[in-house]
Amino acid sequence: MTEPVTTAKTVPSARTEAVVRIEGLSKSFDGRTVLDNVNLEVDRGRIVSVIGQSGGGKTTLMRCVNLLERPDGGTVEVAGEVVHSGGRTLCRDLPRLRRTVGMVFQKFHLFPHLTAVENIVLAQRKAGVAEQEALERAVALLRRVGVAHRGLAQPEQLSGGEQQRVAIARALALRPEVLLFDEPTSSLDPEATREVLSVMRELAADGMTMLLVTHELPFAREVSDHVVFVDGGRIVEEGRPQDVLDHPAQIRTREFLAAYGSTS
To answer: Crossing angle of helices 190-205/160-173, nearest 10°?
Structure first.
């Protein structure tokens, strides 16, 4: 039986600080509860890592933030705007929401017929950025993530790590207030994983607000301000990385970490 939830977060953040605020979030698929009364805040400039076993609701939680999945209940607030509440979508401009909340997917989602530069330019052009400005920003961002030399390559000509770095550059091009990462290294080999995590470390050092789902627990310990353990659609435990990952209070968290240690 799961013990009562305790968290290290004893004082709520000031309402003006949270870029993402989730209250009482619920979501079901075909009668199966995937998220059950989830509450979570991501403060500006902070990095929150969501961990847990596959199928526990982590990705669904993330996709509810930018309404790629529509919650059944609860409230989602982004950058001070309530975008979903009580089962109703209140956001009237989804493209603007998804520019505010950039997302880096597990499977890259680059357009295969476009070059790396063109993928980044296209995202900006759809957002109304002038062509020359979009091109200059794309080149600068490819340089920032370390793949400027691959700007004219199409996705099939890029390694997995290069594709994911292009995807990060594309998300950054729209100048989001928060970046979501959905297991960004799970499809990569160890070398590519190191490359992508290096870029994410630099973003963290620059103060980018990030919410990430990850199985890279050492990375979560290193860069996160807050770690959330999700199991069975509920937040079982949350707090500082050293508390949750090194000294977990909940039995279920200890079981998960022990299993992770036996397979890592």
So the answer is: 20
Under 8 Å between Cβ of 156 and 187: no
- In angstroms, the first-to-last Cα distance of the chain is 26
Strands 18-29 and 73-78 come out as antiparallel
Tell me the per-residue pLDDT of 110-133, one tens digit each, with 9 for 90 and over: 999 999 999 999 999 998 999 999
Half-sphere exposure of 86 (CA within 13 A, CB side): 1
- CB under 8 Å to 4, separation ≥6 — which residues? none
Q: What is the pLDDT of residue 186?
A: 87
* Domain boundaries of the chain, sorted by first residue: 18-108+176-263
For residues 226 and 9, the answer to whether their CB atoms sit within 8 Å is yes
Return the ∠ at Cα 22 (arms to 11 and 25), rounded to 5°: 125
Residue 138's contacts (CB-CB under 8 Å, 6 or more residues apart) are 117, 120, 121, 124, 151, 169, 173
CA distance 207 to 189: 27
Reading the block at residue 182, the tokens are 């959905």
What number of CA atoms fall less than 13 Å from residue 237's CA on the CB side? 22
pTM, rounded to two decimals? 0.87
Q: Which CATH class is domain 18-108+176-263?
A: alpha beta
